[in-house]
Reverse transcriptase/maturase family protein (Sinorhizobium sp. M14), 242 residues
Amino acid sequence: MLNAIYEGDFCGFSYGFRPGRGPHDALDALCVAIDQRRMSWIIDADIQNFFGAVSQEWLVRFLEHRIGDKRIIRLIRKWLKAGILEDGIVTVGDRGTGQGSVISPLLGNIYLHYVLDLWAKRWQQREATGDMITVRYADDLIVGFEREGDARRFLAAMRARLEEFMLSLHPDKTRLIEFGRFAAVNRQQRGLGKPETFAFLGFTFICGKTRKGHFQLQRKTRGDRMRAKLKDIKADLRRRMH
C-alpha cells in the first residue's frame, strides 16, 4: 500500500528499489545526461551508514504528511522499534529503518524523497546558474553541473541539509571532480592532468576519446562488480532483520 501512495510522488531521478526501475535505468540516465548535456563537474556522493542513521522521528513525520490512517502509522512505528540485528545482537534505538527487508528500502526512499530529492529540485530551480542533473539509486548519488561554482555551493548546502536530518556524507567516498566533454581540454589549458574517474553502481566512468579525438563517455566494469555493489546494499538491509 505504501508503494501505491508514494510511487506517484517520487522524483524521476530516483531509481533504487522502485517497480519497473533498476540499476541499468539509473546508469543509462546518467550516461545520457553526461553525453548530451553540458556537464563539467560531478559530485560523487555517498551517504554514510544511511539505513542505520535514519531518524525515526523525522521518518514518522514524513509518513504522517501523506498517510492519514493512524493505524498504519502505529504499525510502522512497531516495525521501526523492532530492533536492528548486528553481529547477532539486537539493538533498539531511535535511529535506522528497523527490521524487514521488504519495507526498509521503501522507507529509505521516502526519507530521502523529503530530505534530499525535493530539496535538490528546489535548489536547482532557485540557485543553479547553469545546467544540473541528479541521479540517485538508494543512498548512492551522482549530481552533475555545468559550472564549478554551482557544484561547490550545492555540495556545501547538501552537507548542511543532510545534517539537519541526522545524516552525513562519507568523508572518503564523497568527491567533487572535473568531468565531462569539456573537462580534458579545460584541464589541459590549466596545465593539469587527465580528468579523474568516478564509480557508480559498480561501473567506472571515464572521459575517453574517439579515434578522431572527440569526447566519448566510457564506462567499464565486470558483471561481478555490479552484482557485488547491489549485494552490499541488500546485505546492509539484511543485517537489520531478525
The chain has a mean pLDDT of 91. The first strand starts at residue 41 and ends at 46. Strands lie at 41-46, 84-86, 89-91, 132-137, 140-145, 175-178, 198-200, 203-209, 215-220. The longest helix spans residues 103-126.
